Amino acid sequence: MCTLEKRGNVFVLAITGTGEHRLNPTLVCSLRSSLRRVREEPNCSALVTTAEGKFFSNGYDLSWAQKHRDRLELMSSEFRALVRDLISLPMPTIAAVTGHASASGLILALSHDYVLMRKDRGFLYMGEVDFGLVLANWFVTLIRSKIGSPAARREMLMKAAKLTAAQGAAMGIIDSAHDGPKETVSAAVRLAEELVARKWDGDVYAANRMVVLREVLDSLGSDETVEAVANQASSKL
């Protein structure tokens, strides 16, 4: 489901395969397992997360969950745990978005400290309103903490705009746009190396991030949208 390699002091975590990288419990558990391995390393490291193929992640695996409330609860719970893991990780984190990032797939990218994206392919898309679904409170809390512009949030959440990397960079949703997947990952690794060179204490870095994102952490305890999704998911597939 994913691979983890170390390039000097930089970990590169890649979601493998050419599919949509739907965030079902199997993929999420694989990502969490990799993060546990990263956590075992000493200070002076950084993480880059990327994906193979046309998709960074196309969101929750609703075809797997369908109308099964228990599956939806598990999927939501495991994903929220993954976001909590990223927020508490004792090193800088960078998402290298090399394809489409939709719904919870975009939330995964935004859960990193920095977001870089290829500009020749892929959209940033929060399509809940298009599919008749209500946004989770914790999604919105995270988005507010990451995106300062109310106009940008309106485009994302209320208009369900499919945003290119260039548009995302101009709106402050991502940090920079790059020519292709290799260039995006290379830029992410270079940024990671610059951050590692600062020689920050990892535990202090994580503690500060947790203070900055305290409202997000507080919101991760529940997902009030599970029941609504359970009632609607199969008709929206």
UniProtKB/TrEMBL annotation:
Pfam families: ECH_1. It catalyses: a (3E)-enoyl-CoA = a 4-saturated (2E)-enoyl-CoA; a (3Z)-enoyl-CoA = a 4-saturated (2E)-enoyl-CoA. Pathway: Lipid metabolism; fatty acid beta-oxidation. It comes from Punica granatum. This is Delta(3)-Delta(2)-enoyl-CoA isomerase. Its EC number is 5.3.3.8. The keyword Membrane does not apply. InterPro entries: ClpP/crotonase-like_dom_sf, Enoyl-CoA_hydra/iso.
